[in-house]
Amino acid sequence: MPHLTQAYKDYISSPSWIKLKNQRLKLDKYVCQACFKKKATQVHHVTYKRLFHELMDDLVSVCFPCHKLITRANRKKKPLSINT
Question: Tell me: the pLDDT tens digits for 21-67?
Fold first, then answer.
């Protein structure tokens, strides 16, 4: 995950990101793609390779608790298994 630079903070508040985020959520029918139980309200970057120019496959819809778990696991560089 990139450090939360001002450019990144500005980007995730931008109309272009909001549009992309809403497209991903709609594609996933607002269902968390990690637990498949809760409503997805956030979009996680699977990769930051194309940050600021993401493809739809670079993103996944998640609920807040799963996003938190994924982020924590990524920071520790451990594989994540969600069995909730």
Answer: 999 999 999 999 999 999 999 999 999 899 999 999 999 999 999 99
Q: Do 60 and 46 meet the contact criterion of CB atoms below 8 Å apart? A: yes
pTM, entire model? 0.82
Closest CA to 25 of 56, 1, 65, 68: 56
Positive or negative: CA dihedral 3, 19, 51, 83? positive
Residues 1 and 46: their CA atoms lie apart, in Å, by 9
Q: What is the residue whose two structure tokens read 């560089």? A: 77
Q: What is the pLDDT of residue 74?
A: 82
CB 25 within 8 A of CB 44: no
Measure the CA–CA gap between 67 and 42, rounded to whole angstroms.
7
